[in-house]
Design a protein that fits this description.
Helix content is about 65%, strand content about 0%. It is mainly alpha-helical.
Length: about 45
């Protein structure tokens, strides 16, 4: 995985969730988001 800023990581995760095709990529992004302590969606 290439190095991404926090903003790029969240946007990539949101795009992957919308398309829903790459389950493995979604999991990789989700793991990295959790490791960084980010929240990809506002509540």
């Amino acid at each position: 995985m290439k190095i991404m800023s926090n903003e790029q990581l969240v946007v990539s995760y949101r795009d992957a969730m919308k398309s829903g095709t790459e389950k493995e990529w979604i999991q990789v992004l989700k793991d990295e988001i959790q490791r960084r302590g980010l929240r990809p969606f506002k509540k």
